[in-house]
Write a structure and sequence with these properties.
31% helix; eight-stranded parallel beta barrel; single chain
Amino acid sequence: MGCCVSTKGKSGAVDVMQPERKKEEKVVPVPPAPVPEEKKKDTAETASLMLLTPTKLGDFTAKNRLALAPLTRGRATEDSVPTDVMVEYYKQRSNAGLVITEATGISKQGLGWWRAPGIWSDEQVAGWQQVTQAIHDEDSLACMQLWHMGRQAHSDVTGEPIVAPSPIAVPGEVTTVNHVKKPYEVPEELTVEKIKRIQEDYKRAAENAKRAGFDMIEVHSANGYLLDEFLQSVTNKRTDEYGGSVENRLRMLREVLDAVESVFPLRNVGVRLSPNGAFGAMGSEDNVETFSAAIKLLGERGVGYVHLMDGLGFGFHEKTEPFTLAMARDILKGTKAEETVLMGNVGYTKETAEARLQAGEADMIAFGRPYISNPDLAVRFAKNAPLNEDAPYEAWWSSHGAKMYTDYPAMQA
C-alpha cells in the first residue's frame, strides 16, 4: 500500500509538573539558529507561488491551482468497476485542488481499454462513490472525465464493432485483453441514428457521475478519441451535417454539451482539447482554424474550464504552428467567458507552471506524470522539496494492484 501524508490528531492540553528551579540558576535564552539566505529565498518564493493559491472553478473554489491530470492506469476490474486500490490512489493525490479521474468509459461500446473504469452500471457508480468520498475528505474537488474511444477501441475489449465518424483505421497495433497487441480495426462509420444514441450515452454517464458524487465532469475531446475524430479533418471525411466545414465538425461536440448540460450546468463542465497532439495518428493542417473555433464555442457556451494540452511532450504532429495557451487566452477574451478557467497541460514543472500563471496565460495547470511517483506533489511544491524519481514507462499502464501505483513514498510528516 502507498503512503499518505499523515495528519495530526486533536489532543487536549496536558499539565506537566515542573521541578522547582534553584534560585541561583540563570536561564540564558538560546538564540535561534540563523536561516541560510538561500533557504530564506526558497521559503519566500514558495510562499508566494500563485500555483498554491485558491481559484474559482465553476460553482466551487479549488484550494490550489494544481489539477491531477487524467491518467489511464488499468486498475479496475474486468467489468470496469473501480477497486479499493483506486480509492487509495485518488486519496493520496487529493492534495491537488482539482482531481480529474482517469478516462472513464461512457458505455461498453466506448471503452476499449482493458481494465479501465466505466460509468454505465450501478456497480461502477457504487465504486466511484468511494473514490469521491475519499477526494472530498481531503477538501478537493472531484471531476470525472467522460470517454468514448472511437476508432482506438478494439472489439476484443468492447465485445462490439468499433465506430468512428469515418471508416479510417489507426495505423499500427492496439493493446487488448491481457495486454495482447493486435492490429487496429477498421471502424464502422456512424449513422446519424447511432450518433444520437452515443449522445444519450453521454447524458446517462453524466447522470451516473452525479449519482457517484462528482462535482464536475470533463468531456474528453482530445488525443484522437471519438470527439476529436469528429473535430479533425484528418479523421472526419463525412459529407453530411457532421462533416466538411469546421462548423459541421463541431456539431458533435456541441450536441454532447447539450446532452450533459441537462445534468451539469456547463459552468461545472470542462472540455479537453489536444490541437498539437499526434497520439492516435492525429494532426490536421487546419487545426489552428478548427481549434480556434472550438475554443470560441466553449467560451460562448460558458464552460467551467478548457483543458488545453498545449505542451509538445506527448508528441507533436508538426502540421501547423504549435497552439499555445496565449492563443487560447486571446480567443476566450473575445467571448463572454468571464469565468471560464484555462488549464494548461503536458510537461510542466513547478517553475514553468508558475510562469504561465504569472503571465496570465493560464489559471490552472494539470500535472500527470509527476503525480505518478509523487502522490504528494502539491505538498512538495509548498515545501520546495525535491521530487521522487520519475516512474518508469512500464509503471504507467498496468494491472498489478498497488505495485508502482500506490506504493510511491510521500514526504515524512
